[in-house]
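go over this chain:
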Amino acid sequence: MSTSQPDASRPSEARAGDDRATPDDLLHARTGTEVSPEDLVLAAGRDITPQNLEWARRKLAEEGPSALDKLLP
């Protein structure tokens, strides 16, 4: 009984399409919608707490929605 296995010996030129880099403008997650303090806290990998929400509000007031772009790839 044979099983289908990916061919590890596949030539690199056949995989060239898999190795392309994604353009930077497609990596940003912001969709043009308003950024909330909760969005910023979660993007920073923090828990939603009153202190973290206050940090996010200050950061959004200073930097605007681009604060989220700076945290995300």
User: Anything to note?
Assistant: Helices lie at 12-15, 24-27, 37-43, 50-63, 66-71.
